[in-house]
Amino acid sequence: MSLPRLEIIPAGAGSGKTYTLKERLGQWVVAGEVAPERILAVTFTEAAAAELRERIRAELLARGRGEDALRLDQAYISTIHGFGLRVLTEFAFEAGVSPQPRLLNEDEQDALVRRALTRTDKTDPIISDLEAYGYRYDFNTEKSAEEVFRDDLLRIVELLRSVGCEDDADVHAQWSSDWVRARYGPTGDGVRMSRALQSSVDILLRAFPGSLARDCGNTKTARKDLQNDYRHLRRAEDPAALAADWRMWQGLRKLRRSNRATALPEGYDALADAVVAAADALPGHPGPLEHAIGHIRTLIAAGQDVLEHYAQAKREAGLVDYGDMIAMAGRLLRERPDVLATLKSRIDCLVVDEFQDTNPLQFDLLWQLSVAGVPTVVVGDLKQAIMGFQGADPRLLEALVQQHRDVARPLVNNWRSQPRLMRFVNALGPGLFGGDYVALEPKGKDSPLHPLEFVAFAAKAGKDQHAVRAAAVGERIQALLHDPAQQVADRRSQRLRPLRGGDFAVLCPTHRMLATYASVLRAKGLRVRLQAEGWFQARPVQLAWHALAYLANPADRHAALYLAVTELGSLTLQEGLRQLMETGRIDEPLLRRLDALAEGVSERTVYALVADTFAALDLFDTVARWPDAEQARANLLRLLAEAAEFMDATREALAHGGFHGAGVQTFLAWLAAKVKDADEQPDPRVLDEDAIVLATWHSAKGREWPLVAVCGLDRVVKARLPNVSLGYPSFDDLSGLLATARIAYAPAFAAPENNEPFLAELQPQAETEARRLLYVALTRARDTLLLEWPEYLGSSESTTYWSLLAGDCRLSLAEGQARVAEELFPCRVTPGSSALPAGLDLSAPVGERELPVVGRRAIRSGVASIALTPDSRTPSGLEHGSGIGDVNALNRERYGAGLAEVAGLSGVALGTFLHRCFEVLGARPDLLEKLPGITGVPVTPEASAQIAAGVQEFEGWLRARFGDASVLREWPLLALDDRGTVVSGTADLIVRTTDGAWIIDHKSDRVEDPLQAFLAYQPQLEAYARALAGEGSPVRGIAIHWIRRGEVVWAPFPTVAAESTR
Amino acid sequence: MTEAPPVLTFLLVPDASAARRVRRLVAARGPCSGWLVGSWGGLIDAVQRAYLAPVPAPGWPDALQEVLAALPDAFWARSLEVAPIETTQAVEAALVQLYGAYAPARAPDVATLAGLPERPRRHVRDLLRLAESLKGRLPEGLAVIRDLLAIDVSHALHAVRVHRIDGVPSLTRWQEALVEKLNRDAESSVTAESDHTAMEILEILSRESPAEVHPGALGVIQSQLFAARGVPAPPDASVQWVGVRDFLQEAEVAAGMVQRMLAEHLDLRPAEIGLLVPDSFEYAVALQDAFRLAGLPLSGLQVEHWRRDLGREVVFHFLYCRQRPAPAMALAVCLASPLMPWSREDGGRLAQSVMDGDYGLRAPAAAGVAGQQMLDLLRGDDSVPSGLANALRAFAALLDGGERFAAHRLQARDTVERLCEFLKGSIDIDWSALRRAAQPRFVPSGEVPDFNQEGVTVWRESQETWRPVRRLLVLGFAQGRYPAAPGSSPVFSADDVQALRDQLGLPIPTPGDELARRRGRLRRQLGAAAESVAFLVPRRDFAGKPQSPSDSLVFMHPLFTGPESAQERVLDIEAAELRDGVSYLALAEPAAPEPPRPLTADDPRFDRDLLQIRTTREGEQKPESPSSLETLMVSRLAWLLRRLGAEPRGWAPEGPDVRLLGTLAHEVFEYLFRPGMDLPELTDLEARTLGFLDVAIRERAPFLMAPQWQVERRHLAVGMARAALAWRNALDKLGAEVLAGEAWLQGTWAGIPIHGQADLILGLPGDRLLVVDYKRSKSAKRREQMEKGYDSQANLYRTMLQTGGLKNDDQGPLAERLRRGAAIGTVYYMMNDQTGLADTALPGTGGIPDWQTLDNDVSGAAMALIRQRLDEVRAGLLVLNRESDAEFFQKEAGITPYALENSPLVKLFTVTDEDAGGAA
Ligand code: SF4
What we know:
The complex is a heterodimer. In chain A, strand 28, helix 40 and strand 29 form a beta-alpha-beta unit. Chain A contains 41 helices and 30 strands. Chain A starts with 5 loop residues before the first strand and ends with a helix. Chain A is elongated. Helices cover 47% and strands 14% of the residues of chain A. The longest helix of chain B has 25 residues. In chain B, helix 13 crosses helix 18 and helix 14 packs antiparallel against helix 15. Chain B is α/β, with parallel strands linked by helices. In chain B, the strands form four sheets. Chain B has a seven-stranded parallel β-sheet with strand order 7-10-6-11-12-5-13, sandwiched between helices. In chain B, strands 17-14-15-16-18-19-20 form a seven-stranded mixed β-sheet, sandwiched between helices. Chain B is elongated. At the A-B interface, helix 2, helix 3, helix 4, helix 5 and helix 6 of A face helix 1, strand 2, strand 3, helix 4 and helix 5 of B. Strand 26 of chain A pairs antiparallel with strand 2 of chain B, so a sheet runs across the interface. The complex binds iron/sulfur cluster (SF4). Iron/sulfur cluster binds next to helix 33 of chain A.
């Protein structure tokens, strides 16, 4: 067996591609074709990578290949970004980048792009008049015109990066201009057109110099229109506006004239007609075209500059973004054949999952390996290519398949859906995808559940149509849930059981629609789970937030008032306000609990302070009893996680966002800014068996449920402008694709006529993507597919998801049957109302009926009562322990003057140094010279002499006192004490005489009363003595040598005190 | 003294945790002397002391970096340029790895490299060149060994006999060589008996599976995990995998389980239960919290309490302050630092005023001269290194903070010294290099774990067991842990290492070896449990993202009969059926939720006139401004909070927000259109506008000068020029004379004093006056508000002119002129679409393109509403907002009710319309 150079596995929904992959890889490993650590598998998500790794490993284990399963750890099984990053770090030196690149955050990206922008002047024409180029405040994203512009530019930068920056900007600019020009349509003499408009406007304004709004605006719209008309007319007088303001032109095409409701002054209509006629030349005017081309050229030229400076800035700062991980790795392989060869030698086979979702850069990186000869398996499904909004380009897979039909091995079975359902999907296939559709052989188990259900809407709801449909769908789900006859096979046990909420998924095309469905289903008493926004405003988060604000600044009256009058406080609003009025402060026990933390505020880390605050307010315990306990807890946990992230963030990254400091206030400021883009409440649970899952069509990809309701088919499928994408002259040479890719920028023109050709080109793409999205949504169900069926759309002209099904797939309902083309499918049709059911209260608060029984509440609260015994201790830890003892039992012997002062040395360092000197020189007086090296302390000859003399004196005394007994210096001792604590320490001197040992410790403290001071150290010495005695050598005495005093204080051992404590 | 030195016995173990265990084992055999137990670091310490080794010379990292830079054609050269620290680290690690693999006595020979593949050959060659250029200097770990190898035992205080088990820990060749030397040196005094004892003890520690293998499932894991597999065994309760949501829940579930275990096994002591936890601080904090709640003591929990590095922090931010334009938040951080020569309260106040946009700081009186000097320093800037060095020194000298922060102060001074050293030789100020040198890091607080005999035994994933247990809970059994994967080296890949081993016979461990070592440790850890082990699998990571179980689960799975996939082994406690299968899982009594204290929104009543809360020193009511009255109209609570000084405060980075841009625009117009001066000439209008804008930015918002705000600056400038041009032409057409700009007016209205600053007062032909309010927005919303009669502001200025006049200059000619004004009109000039919205028809406006005159009563409804509100608050009644208010103001009044957002309290204490019994 040898590996195929290239194999393409088209894998429809539920066709078991992971199973196929692990089988195949397992075989190859067993056959010795592939070493497990040399597998490179690229998946779309981390979770998919983890699953694939697990499955391959389990397969190897099942085949008895334990060693191979272990070696799989070294394999490259990751997302494409993970792979790119690994290439980049493993070959960091070849790439000339930091071996530990850091992922840059949005603030940094923003700051670096801003900085790169200042280094080009090519944007001048645009930034001098952002508005003229269509950049204005965006109410949806709350971004300023400047930010919108930068986003636009960044998009171009990204595209330029994908197409490789070898070409100079002109090539791209030229191509893009030509692309627009080719579609714009014929143009005429712009100067003449403008002049005509100008003169017709002049004539009109001469006759009617003022606004007609006041006199003729008898209705609201009339007034508004006339105001606008006047504004446009006046603007047209300005030659600069006439030559640039195409919206104004478009406005003039719609000048208001007399109608039934509003009569305009005599003579006006005729003059207005003339203006309109002149303005109607707009679609053929060359001005808008030139303007748009200028815009694109500027963006591309500036984008090229920015790309360069931005890349440079990132490299210097050791930063990468997700795009870099791919782009830089790709470039490295292209520019360094040696790296490509090395990498190739490390990879036995390349597996790419979800190939339809790769973007051109990713494709380029992977394709280089394939071309270099790495056997490649590509798995993907064009029908599920729905990640275009992330830059995925399914044309790549399409081209690949077309060029390599011979190596395509499509998977032909479906293991997911019950056969009756699968047959329905198969019937829709050709309608969605034409002749290319390959029917999947149903292999799923039969289910007792009805495969197909429709909720049909004959009439459009007057208002709240999403809610109205949600109510009808909810009704049906409720009925199914309450019907004990409806049984489903349990995933784990495979046994039939009644339905639960968690068996259902409701899929909508947009998040907004989901939110409506969630509130309607909840109002109907159904449990749902949906990741919702609103974290920051959640009660526990707000409470903690204000507590932190108060902690950071106790003078913050607002925070104090807030805490006092809300859930955790004890005051009413009235009481709180009154206190502020009267005393200027708030008296509230809760605040006192926080005051107790004030001491540590400046030194403790933000994470510790957040945790402390939670503890001081008993927040976790409190919310554990609240109606939405689990969500509340998850929300608080996110606050902790944010604190950790804040602490981990590098200073540069924070500073780029304008955030300085490491304290609570900076944290709060950082967080307030962060939640503007990331306000999601974390999922409170992992599993929720009773909750209906709500998900978008997009996010349903790769998932499955027993019963799936597909909602929102009324959504219109429409291409939008402006649109930026990559254009390729041809797909013939896949390796050279990037080099030939160009930027296709379809602008939005003021005149709709100009937009038409662009839209005409984009619309089919939009529809193709819509069909794929539909396919994804329709193939998620195992047992039952429930479709909303807005048949009232039959009279509508626009393309909707519904019209794709009803029209292209020829799906219709009649008498309990669904007809697809000629085929009939039994189904259940429930009629849906066109109004909300009475009594449905969407604003009613919903909470759990029961608290969770696991987790925090299950801990029985208790108080630790036992006194704890240390596991180990060092005798020096006993210092100053007891201090009891009898001074009278002590003896003192002075041997010399002591080393009270040593020339040139002082402080703590002197103490440690002296101690060491006595140890070293005591044993090895010959090492005096080497003392500086050994201790790391420089000493003057004078000091050396002093010290040597001191040591000599002491050693002299020692010999005189104990004869030539053997001396152990720095001798470790180890024992258990009577409480079972391990005692370990080091005795400075152990003198072994014939009738027993002496323990002597050097002390360099300055003491006034050496006898009293001895008592403090006595327990330590006794501990040494006991350990030594326990070993079997009798101990006769314990002593302290006071270095500074030239004096030894000693006691016989066992001492009286020691006896009594034993 | 000629006798051989006494010999110490050293038991070498992998880490401190193992050392603790071994020390107890040794001590338990009876007291002994002359024995030491420790890891490699401990051995080196002991040997250095015993052999009287010289203290190694400092300065290694700098030396290395220098030599690295001196080899411009080496493989690291380009990376070194952009990432000196990371590159140096990586190269050093590789050097240690490579060098450590040669025997210390054997000099590596370049000639032997020929057989290597190109990449490792090049890397080895460059590393050897590096070693050569280092001229005998070696990385610290190697240098120490080399030095010790060179010391003759006759020079030592003690000889050291080292005992160890092969592989636990595993040693490099250099380390092996040292151990051999030590043991040779100690040869004379070795006794078979002590050797035997030592080895017997170490043996216990190193066993991967326990001496007595558990008879059930636990035993299967202990003896077969990662090993060749026998027949699958039936699972039992001695091993379980429990799925929980997150780390906190793990800690909570663990506490509950421990409680149940103790309750059900009376012979079980807490110390006999073990918690094996990941090496991350969140686990420590969570465990501390959960076990405190449960009243269970812990033993050995490493709570890593970090402290902030206040000393470096203040210096780091001082650097930001001295570089123009200084970010306001950096200044605030300095002001609020506890090292400042003023109190924490004063610091907080100063910082907040900076964050509120007020830079006119005054040093707190109590701070004396030092305070003023500090403020001056913080607000100064630098362009030359010497100046900055002086400023830094002066700054360091002024730092205070008392005894409590002495250590931080010291740190700050050290840092300043380092920076000054750095500045000495430089020509320019390299701000980012300086900041890198002053970079604050977290400093450990020095707390040591409490190891006690009674508490539940805790040890960490990266540590050996320090105390065997009967029951073990493994926390954090998620992907990336148990074991953690070793990182890859940019110098030598796994294949490169393999080549080095095959071709050169160098015993360098591959990442695979390292992983195997970690798996061995995991097995030893699991081997420390006698009766049961439970793996807690967190399904979500810290941030709430899904995560997979540890890779080891897949290896455990096939050891047992039962479910098909490894995933199904995990019993998730959120699933009722699975939960029942979890042994010792603590369950709470079912209970209904207890809702928190309800926030009752009753309209508060006070027995006082709320207008009298703010009075002048003479006890007179302070005047209201038009904007305050508009706040009152929208929300009485918001208005009261402002009066009480209880509005939210906080920090935010400076940015071109609406308020700031408005201020700048106002200022520019104030400069452009001045009383007593002709209208600016058309020819230089743009230049002057831009000039004035620059001045305003410099004064009010220096940060906007920074390059990253270029687009904003430009956009603002273009807009200002356009607005100025249109306005100038409008004034021209009106024949207007500028009478006053930014003039403080006062008057009375509805029985209360009012005041405010009028943007512009124009004199028009015929003694007419026109009060102008500039707005930096577009006209649509304002027009709507006026059309609906809810515009109060301009009218209030008119009222001031009518009932009072100029606030300060009451007698001058201007005052006279204002008094004479026959008719007073008002106009909003909407800068963003250059539209004038006037409430009075004026001659001459016909020719102004965007001049609109509203002919309804633009303020009637607003004034009536405000009057009503005033009556209420005068009577002490604070009517809260109603739910319908927001919509009312939006739709009926044409106002965006920003005041409702002034404080979250406004929304919280909004009365539902049912409760209110109808709209306000
Ligand atoms: S998931 Fe929602 S937001 Fe995301 S692309 Fe789909 S519809 Fe748009």
